[in-house]
Design a protein that fits this description.
Blueprint: H1 2-10, E1 14-16, H2 21-29, E2 33-35, H3 42-46, E3 65-73, H4 78-88, E4 96-102, H5 110-121, H6 125-128, H7 140-145, E5 146-152, H8 168-175, E6 180-183, H9 188-194, H10 214-230, H11 232-238, H12 240-258, H13 264-267
Parallel strand pairs: 1-2, 3-4, 3-5, 5-6
Length: 268
Amino acid sequence: YFYDVRDKILTIKVEAWTDGVCGQFIAENYPNVTFKFKEHQVFLHYNKEGHFKHGESTNLEDKDKLFFYTINLRKERSARYKLLAALETTDLRDQCLSLSGSRHSIHSIKDSIRNELITEDSYHPDELKDVEWFDGLPKKSFYRRTYCELACETLGNKDGDDTFWPTEKTMKPIMMKHPFLLLAPMHHLKNLRGLGFKTFSGIIDESYDEMPKIEDRIKKIIDNLYAIKKDPVNLWNATIEIREHNHLVLGDLLERDKNSSVSFQDLL
């Protein structure tokens, strides 16, 4: 029975959600599979009419910190713990804004987060009335006050993993037209470029994207923060064109998903 089912599967043209380590296994066993980028749920969330159509306007005069990070600590996300532990050994703590902590119930604090976003981040109440997933919202005040974001993606918790699955952690700085450093699986930046985005090579040392070991990527990312610290205004000014380009590309992807004949829910 198993082989009968497997033979039928082998005759079907399958579009897989991702490639990377898991994709290698699939490709070796199911040759008819073709890999295609599929959107994270963040695309649906940002696609709601009237939500986040433009990046946050920022002035250099508003910036009082080098970078920020928002990291939700979960035991199965070991890379996040390694990143925070490495940052604790540096003298960069005074240069950053941060939100990190244990996994929490979003519903239990939904009203307080909503009120904070309205009062501190200038969201309009109508923008937030249907929002259930606040982790996906850019914290506007953090973007106004910093020169770059340090984001830690969901995947990439094992050395050598190159699975590509960008989430809101990648999309928020792009949406907000902000420079970013990403702790993610190998080749995450390379795959973003494959979607039409530009990254910051030549301005930031992005060799970390090619490093199999998590600790090596973290070290190179921290080295980058120290380099940026010497002249953060140069980073900001040198990346304007890239950030504008990426915002347009993201908008095109959102529209493509919005106008797709097959809804994201149906794909699930």
